[in-house]
Design the sequence.
């Protein structure tokens, strides 16, 4: 048993996302401080374990890999969930972490469409005080006027304070004391957020108890520049280097993908990403912008109905 301090890190994945999860894990492991032991939990809803061998190869002393089935937890809430376009139920798995893992005081959740270039222990040991979450303002929201309008008019949150939930350091003790899961379930029954779904719930419930971090820990291609090397890159929304060959920061993804056992699979996905699928991405992005505007204009949106209560 390791005597090193343990850092728990959570991902969410399905079978289709295992190749990109593996690339993210490779980057995280290579750049993480050896002064800590890491326990990696991959939340899922029934992945075929016979297909996880390439991921399990990352496991060794001080770097544990665990697949955790959250189907039972999802069953309790799935009828009330909103899912749209390329979103799957996996985006909601992070909601369960505090209650499912009472042995941990804090934990980091990371989306699988990420590359970790910095030492992840530096992020995981940030002083949080009594904040529920430490996270980075959402670069995509800040870059699109319709999304800035949405956060203000629907959530009552300025875009500069609206965080992206793809990389969140969670104060699990505070989550449990706050009864975050109970409040999430209550809000889920009360109102359905349709634009960013679970990210909106997290922002509403954690507002004013969020420690905002520098963009370097959740840098997206949108809003980024060529002269920077972030600590963590998040290929958010449709900006995936395995779908397009002109994505900012794609060289960092391919640095690790080319060393991956999934390399051929990932390259085949890029080669086979058709014009029709790219056109559909553009349509989905436009629809999302239109939805954000429509939600902002609704007289019965969340902030107009519940904002002052």
Sequence:
């Amino acid at each position: 048993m390791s005597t090193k301090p343990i850092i728990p890190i959570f991902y969410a994945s399905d079978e289709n996302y295992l190749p990109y999860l593996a690339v993210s894990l490779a980057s995280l492991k290579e750049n993480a401080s050896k002064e800590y032991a890491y326990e990696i939990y991959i939340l899922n809803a029934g992945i075929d374990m016979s297909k996880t061998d390439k991921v399990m190869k990352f496991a060794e002393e001080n770097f544990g890999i665990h697949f955790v089935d959250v189907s039972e937890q999802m069953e309790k809430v799935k009828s009330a969930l909103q899912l749209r376009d390329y979103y799957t139920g996996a985006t909601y798995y992070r909601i369960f972490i505090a209650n499912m893992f009472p042995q941990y005081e804090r934990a980091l959740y990371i989306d699988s469409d990420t590359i970790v270039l910095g030492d992840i222990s530096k992020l995981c040991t940030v002083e949080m005080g009594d904040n529920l979450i430490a996270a980075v303002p959402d670069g995509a929201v800040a870059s699109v006027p319709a999304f800035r309008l949405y956060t203000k008019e629907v959530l009552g949150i300025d875009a500069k304070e609206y965080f992206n939930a793809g990389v969140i350091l969670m104060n699990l003790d505070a989550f449990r004391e706050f009864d975050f899961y109970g409040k999430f379930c209550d809000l889920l029954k009360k109102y359905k957020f349709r634009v960013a779904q679970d990210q909106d719930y997290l922002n509403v419930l954690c507002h004013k108890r969020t420690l905002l971090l520098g963009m370097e820990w959740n840098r997206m291609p949108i809003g980024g520049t060529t002269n920077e090397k972030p600590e963590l890159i998040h290929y958010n929304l449709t900006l995936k280097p395995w779908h397009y060959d002109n994505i900012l920061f794609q060289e960092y993804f391919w640095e690790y993908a080319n060393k991956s056992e999934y390399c051929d699979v990932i390259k085949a996905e890029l080669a086979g990403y058709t014009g029709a699928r790219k056109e559909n991405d553009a349509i989905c992005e436009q629809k999302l912008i239109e939805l954000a505007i429509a939600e902002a204009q609704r007289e019965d949106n969340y902030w107009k109905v519940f904002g002052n209560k």
